């Protein structure tokens, strides 16, 4: 079997509080392979966001290691982790976090340019992604002129702009109405499957989780099949 795109190996994460030490993850293990979409379904407060932050190299584990494409990455210095995030990992959040002063196209082009891509090819990639989501006519619109569903489509396109190997999403359609959520999620799955990415998607929606390849949950700080 090929190397997993993402592997969490005995990852621990704890936080100090006024009441004492809170152990959120206690030796969590998880492997996700290219072309596999995994749903993360767990109650609030059990560590979903913490696990996603560790997987995305936004936090360091207190013990254990995070491997991205076979490389031990969780305990690298800030520069090393930032370089991997830019080249290998795409993020989609519940809130779109688009930059309001820039157009839809610019919001997709800017992360590419930050990674060293020249403006013209970055914009060409942006237009390609906008067209894939049926938003080519919205390229020059700022977020304030887009609907909620359109804003989230742009956010997904931005996450895919640098052709990541791994997509991490935290309730990516949680702020949308049911009909728009279903439509945007369908487009997200089609894009992820079409590009053969590994994806870890946190959701509270069992219907959305059922459309992914498998589901895991968090229990007592461990990742287990749901």
TrEMBL record:
Work out whether the entry's keyword set contains Iron-sulfur: no
A Gene Ontology molecular function term for this protein is: transmembrane transporter activity
Coiled coil (residue ranges) = none
Organism domain of life: Bacteria
**Which terms are listed as keywords in the entry?**
ATP-binding, Cell inner membrane, Cell membrane, Lipoprotein, Membrane, Nucleotide-binding, Transport
Q: Name one GO biological process term.
A: protein localization to outer membrane
Record GO cellular component, one term: membrane protein complex
> ABC transporter domain: from which residue to which, for each copy?
6-226
* Short name of one Pfam family: ABC_tran
Entries under PANTHER family matching the protein: IMPORT ATP-BINDING PROTEIN, LIPOPROTEIN-RELEASING SYSTEM ATP-BINDING PROTEIN LOLD
Q: Which family does it belong to?
A: Belongs to the ABC transporter superfamily. Macrolide exporter (TC 3.A.1.122) family.
Q: What is this protein called?
A: Lipoprotein-releasing system ATP-binding protein
The source organism is Humitalea rosea
């Amino acid at each position: 079997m090929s190397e997993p795109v993402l592997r969490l190996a005995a990852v621990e994460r704890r936080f100090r509080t006024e009441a004492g030490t809170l152990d959120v993850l206690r030796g969590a293990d998880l492997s996700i392979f290219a072309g596999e979409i995994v749903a993360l379904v767990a109650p609030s407060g059990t560590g979903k966001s913490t696990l996603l932050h560790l997987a995305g190299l936004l936090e360091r584990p207190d013990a254990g290691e995070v491997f991205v494409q076979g490389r031990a990455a969780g305990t690298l210095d800030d520069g090393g982790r930032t370089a991997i995030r830019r080249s290998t990992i795409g993020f989609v959040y519940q809130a779109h976090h688009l930059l309001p002063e820039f157009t839809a196209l610019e919001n997709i082009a800017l992360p590419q340019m930050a990674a060293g891509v020249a403006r013209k090819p970055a914009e060409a990639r942006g237009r390609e992604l906008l067209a894939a989501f049926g938003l080519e006519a919205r390229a020059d619109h700022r977020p304030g002129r887009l609907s909620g569903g359109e804003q989230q489509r742009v956010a997904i396109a931005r996450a895919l702009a640098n052709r990541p190997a791994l997509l991490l999403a935290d309730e990516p359609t949680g702020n949308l109405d049911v009909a728009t959520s279903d439509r945007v999620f369908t487009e997200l799955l089609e894009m992820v499957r079409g590009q053969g990415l590994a994806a870890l998607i946190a959701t509270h929606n069992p219907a959305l989780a059922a459309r992914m390849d498998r589901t895991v949950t968090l229990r007592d700080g461990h990742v287990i099949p749901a």
